[in-house]
Amino acid sequence: MKTLTDTEYIHALIAEGEHQQQDFKFEISDARKIAKTLSAFANTDGGKLLIGVKDNGKIAGVRSDEEQYMIEAAAGLYCSPEVNYTMQTYLVEGRSVLVVQIEESDRKPVYAKDETGKYLAYLRIKDENILATPVHLRVWQQSGSLKGELIEYTEREQLLLNLLEENNRLSLNRYCRLAHLSRRTAEHLLAKFVRYDIVEPVFEGHKFHFRLK
Question: Could you tell me the keywords of this UniProt record (predicted)?
Answer without folding.
Answer: ATP-binding, Nucleotide-binding
